[in-house]
From TrEMBL:
Lineage: Bacteria, Pseudomonadati, Aquificota, Aquificia, Aquificales
Endoribonuclease YicC-like N-terminal domain mapped to chain residues: 3-154
Keywords tagged on the record: Coiled coil, Endonuclease, Hydrolase, Nuclease
Protein name: YicC family protein
Cofactor: a divalent metal cation
Entries under Pfam families matching the protein: YicC-like_C, YicC-like_N
Keyword Nuclease attributed: yes
Length: 287
């Protein structure tokens, strides 16, 4: 079953002393594009591994991953002596600058300095790395399921439009012989009108050959073959977006040729091209 390239998933995991939040959004793209944002330690130590995971799960699409880690335990404890030292530094600086700070503001500035000095990059231990990667896998699996559900909806819509094209093609097949005979008769009458009584058998042979060029049997057969191949591709359990896009181009070529040969069927060809364009738009979202 083909997959859609659009989807969204959110995974929240509590891992020992950490809470991990992962959001993954995917959109259609001609190739694969991956953007990872969030916790700086994750980006530093796991960026490459996460990219490889996405490439293992998907072949096409634009992926945006947001990964945040929140500690469930205090990272540091403020010792009274350290708090006093920082507060004295702040008082001295503000005194020299002739700036007055209330006790509440002094406490806020002091705590801010302590937090900044303790906000250093921490290397992720192997257990936490493994847990984060497992959470990413869970999110990617959920995204794949979402893309599969969306893909099923796309296929149903495409199938209904293929049916409409087939119905119009069937009508064309039923009427084409009558339309072709009418076209031949018009050519015969035109030859008679131009040559009068001096027409020859050769002239009518040429007229017949000209009328035969209006035959659309080959285009009808090729279009039916393309539709059959299109349906075969829809049943494959692999990325088929590029192949379907190519088939849309081939089908459009046959419909245009058919319309140019037989202007009498312009009503059908216009409607067929309208349905085919809607199919092509849906195909752009298929992996």
């Amino acid at each position: 079953m083909p997959y859609s390239m659009t989807g969204f998933t959110f995974v929240k995991k509590v891992l020992d002393d950490y809470e991990v939040n992962i959001k993954v959004k995917s959109l259609n793209n001609k190739s694969i594009d991956i953007s990872i944002k969030g916790d700086k330690n994750v980006l530093m130590y796991l960026d490459l591994e996460i990219r490889k995971l996405v490439q293992q799960y998907f072949e096409r699409g634009s992926f945006q991953l947001y990964i945040n880690i929140n500690s469930l335990t205090p990272k540091f404890i403020v010792e009274p002596e350290k708090l006093t030292q920082y507060a004295n530094v702040v008082r001295e600086i503000t005194k020299q600058a002739s700036i007055y700070l209330s006790d509440d503001k002094l406490y806020e500035v002091t705590i801010g300095m302590i937090v900044n000095n303790n906000n250093v990059e921490e290397e992720l231990d192997d257990t936490l790395k493994e847990n984060i990667l497992n959470a990413v896998k869970e999110a990617l699996n959920a995204l794949k399921e979402e893309r599969e559900r969306e893909g099923k909806s796309l296929i149903l819509d495409i199938e209904s439009r293929l049916n409409k094209i087939e119905e119009m093609l069937k009508e064309i097949e039923e009427k084409k012989e009558k339309v072709l005979e009418s076209a031949k008769e018009k050519v015969y009458q035109k030859v008679k009108q131009l040559l009068g009584e001096n027409y020859s058998e050769r002239a009518f042979i040429e007229a017949t050959l000209l009328a035969d060029k209006l035959d659309i049997t080959e285009e009808v057969v090729r279009l039916k073959t393309h539709i059959q191949r299109f349906r075969e591709l829809l049943n494959l359990n692999e990325p088929i977006g590029r192949k379907l896009d190519f088939m849309c181009q081939e089908m459009l070529r046959e419909i245009n040729t058919l319309g140019n040969k037989m202007p009498d069927f312009s009503k059908f060809t216009v409607e067929m091209k309208t349905e085919l364009e809607k199919i092509r738009q849906q195909v752009q979202n298929i992996e």
